Amino acid sequence: MTTLPPQPLSPLDGRYRDAVAGLAEHLSEAGLNRARVEVEVEWLITLTDRSLFGTTPLADADKQRLRALYEDFGQDEIDWLAAKEAVTRHDVKAVEYVVRDRLSALGLDAVAELTHFACTSEDINSASYALTVQRAVTGVWLPKLREVVARLRGLAVEHADAPMLSRTHGQPATPSTMGKELAVFAWRLERVVAQIEDGEYLAKFSGATGTWSAHLAAEPSVDWQALSKGFIEGLGIGFNPLTTQIESHDWQVELYDRARHAGGILHNLATDAWTYISLGFFAQIPVAGATGSSTMPHKINPIRFENAEANLEISGGLFATLAATLVTSRMQRDLTDSTTQRNIGVAFGHSLLALDNLLRGLDTISLSRDVLLADLDANWEVLAEAIQTVVRGEIAAGNSSITDPYALLKDLTRGHRVGAEQLAEFVQGLDISDAAKQRLLALTPASYTGVAEQLARG
What we know:
Layout: H1 17-27, H2 29-49, H3 60-71, H4 75-88, H5 91-105, H6 121-158, E1 163-168, E2 171-177, H7 178-197, E3 202-203, H8 213-218, H9 224-234, E4 238-239, H10 250-278, E5 282-284, H11 303-326, H12 336-341, H13 344-362, E6 365-367, H14 369-377, H15 384-396, H16 405-413, H17 420-428, H18 434-442, H19 452-457
Parallel strand pairs: 3-4
Antiparallel strand pairs: 1-2, 5-6
Helix pairs in contact: 1-2, 1-6, 1-13, 2-3, 2-5, 2-6, 4-5, 6-7, 6-13, 7-10, 10-11, 10-13, 11-13, 15-16
């Protein structure tokens, strides 16, 4: 048997590459290295702008050419770093060397020793992860999540007045509308989205154990805490002033827990949509040329929702692992976070793939209102709740001598199908006021939806 040519091991880099490519721009190894170069370059420029250690600010043209190292970061830089890391066996050290190499090419060797000045690798890494995760979340993942929420909101309004039989514990229950049920998911997701949007992306920049010891040894007169804070905030991320060797990752734990929470809600949406399709509430719109089943030509399988369900389970598991692992570091530093963080892109990749499938699934379903109405018409017994509640009010008002309205309705409806005529006859015989009888006789399962329509419209 011949050996296959090199193949991607992960489906995210193979079958589903196009769907998640936007994340790779930031959360791949190359994306991380580009951010590392950015942090190293900007720190050097910050130090020279302050004229520290006898330097003078770089000329604008030199700054521009130096920044081009990360702004135009491409295959040449990726290959250079891979070759250098093979020798250094240290990824951040390889990044330092590529910056030094560019300085030499620009004739700026005089400031080369300020490359990576007073930094531990985690100063560079924490800033780089904050930048890459922030850019991936705000630029790629959150927009797709917002698309799903917007689509749900649109469907909620579209179907706000479409009455449907609810099923609590899988059994017929007080009717709602399809729009209101979809609005529930939209509202739940909007809360989590708001929490994610308010989240922080933090970095530290305080040296080997978070004390600025080397900085002060080199130049005691500088307010290194203020300088570091200004530098990090100038990158567009938040500053953590109190850390060990590593930034404590609590912001990441918060983010991944919230992403997992959003995924749980989306998983609930996927399984409910699948169930509504199986009940015939939603019809699936055929896609030209698509095969639903390899052997049964009539079928249109709800594969978008099934695919979303599976990918949300994978991403949820990874987000949970990220959060559980990153919250702890032994004393001042261990390396468990290093390998763990390299899977951030995998977690968001499976989540993004799920979002893509959910959006496609929601775009290819059509509500079968006739099925909803037929289901309602077959379950008049759900009005038992309304009847016994009205009777309670009549008893309280002194308009009825009935002693146990709940038991009365239970005897009539529990375990039985009750039709419209039987229910009307029952209402007519109740010891309640005529006004109450008329309100009950006017009810149908399709009209017994309370303020569901208003809730759906927001």
